[in-house]
Design brief:
Shape: elongated
Distance between the termini: 31 Å
Strand order of the largest sheet: 5-4-6-3-7
Largest sheet: 5 strands, mixed
Structural class: alpha/beta
Strand content: 15-25%
Helix content: 40-55%
Radius of gyration: 21 Å
Length: 254
Amino acid sequence: SSGFAAVANGAVDISLRATTNNLWRDGNYGVDFSDSYLQTGLQVLSRSSLGLSRVEQLNGSTIGVINGTTANQVLRLALAKTGESARIINYADSLELYDAFRKGEVDAIARDGALLAGFQQLLAKEESPIPTTMLAGQLSYEPIAAVVDENQSKFLDLVNAVIATLKEAALIGVTSANASDKYAEATSIDGSAELRKLFQLDPGAALPEEIGLNGDRVKSILVSVGNLNEIIDRSIFNYSQNTVSVNRQLQRPI
């Protein structure tokens, strides 16, 4: 919950810590969530030497989770459905969780699949690689969102506008490499409606001026970081298997 406290107390303006948006957190931590920028699900990673392939085989295992996350509850519910019993151990943060897995203190760990995939890749590249298996089955649907203070509605509007822009750019094929050309195309007499909309060039459909997301800024953002698919591709190992593709995600219209 430290990320929530930092936002609520004004220590930081925004927290991006792979946080799942849910109503309990929204109502209890004094924060607001942005629209989801990534959609994944809880999965379980185990040592390949254990020979496990499915969550249903975890009976009697020791599973590590991060304290205060949704993983503990989701995992208990999933095990209850199949009648399995496992010992769940809570760790303070991802560093402690991953260290416990490396040392063999737990048989498996549960976290969002997109994050576990990165850890799996890291383990495979270490000096003494640890072969791992991502168990079949996604245990939950996790909409990952940014966290802002609940009294910053204008800032939240800007965050949501940027997320919607990154998603829309991915859907229509505007990338870091072609954003400048697409912007020039949008400003031409033959510019398509979808490009004009993306670059805030349609006066009848543009975002309010106070949000501060005009065409030049949209272009600068996309040139700098690319669309949402490009960001995810750089950040998450094997992202196509561990996240929901942008064209299947909920999308706030620009």
